[in-house]
Design a protein that fits this description.
Helix content: 40-55%
Number of strands: 7
CATH architecture: 3-Layer(aba) Sandwich
CATH superfamily: Gcn5-related N-acetyltransferase (GNAT)
Distance between the termini: 22 Å
Strand content: 15-25%
CATH topology: Aminopeptidase
Shape: globular
Largest sheet: 7 strands, mixed
Order of helices and strands: EHHEEHHHEHEHEE
Radius of gyration: 16 Å
Number of helices: 7
CATH class: Alpha Beta
């Protein structure tokens, strides 16, 4: 069963930050930050700040044993204050050159989900499964939960990923791949949608 994550201690939140950070270290989103050993520290910081944002916005969900997490944001209820806090924290904690390369990449792939993003929708902010528990259907459980939320609200569910394997997984789980955009660094953004 998937439930909203609330009332965590700092220790519990730190465990989630570490789990999510480790899951994203090899993500192509951070391709410009260098090989994995060189980018690990900054990716871990970045993803910790991102987890804080998703949690503070009340958009973090997990399975019962906290081995799988998904962030889901209804575009009709965007949380501006947590977003501003995250951006300010990033400016303080992440090297400017790293942020600059990420912004450059984001500008190039920014319109990839334009087809659906202009209407009210749910953004899948992240999907993460503890590495030790992958292959056990947890990602499927998380995506099914998100699809049920989409059905209940009657709005599309959007996934954006820079990992071909993840795009294929989302397609296998019933999402439509409707656009791809490749940035000048060779990284491709895959935009997928689920709607009834």
């Amino acid at each position: 069963m998937i439930c909203k994550v609330e009332n965590l201690s700092e220790e519990q939140l730190e465990k989630i930050r570490q789990l999510v950070g480790e899951a994203f270290v090899n993500n192509e989103l951070f391709h410009n930050w260098g090989p994995i050993p060189q980018r690990r520290e900054d990716v871990m910081k970045y993803m910790a700040l991102y987890v804080d944002y998703v949690y503070e916005a009340g958009e973090l969900y997990a399975n019962e044993d906290f081995t799988g997490f998904i962030g889901l944001e209804d575009s009709g209820n965007a949380h501006k204050l947590p977003q501003i806090k995250m951006l300010l924290r990033m400016l303080i904690k992440i090297r400017f050159s790293r942020l600059k390369s990420l912004v450059s990449f984001a500008k190039q792939i920014g319109g990839s989900n334009e087809k659906y993003a202009k209407q009210r929708h749910i953004d899948a902010l992240m999907v993460c499964v503890d590495k030790g528990y992958q292959g056990r259907g947890i990602a499927s459980e998380l995506v099914t939960f998100a699809k049920e939320m989409s059905d209940e609200l009657g709005i599309p569910l959007l996934f954006d990923t820079d990992m071909k394997d993840y795009a294929e997984m989302y397609q296998h789980l019933g999402c439509e791949l409707y656009n791809t955009v490749t940035a000048d660094n060779g990284v491709t953004r895959y935009s997928l949608c689920y709607h009834k």
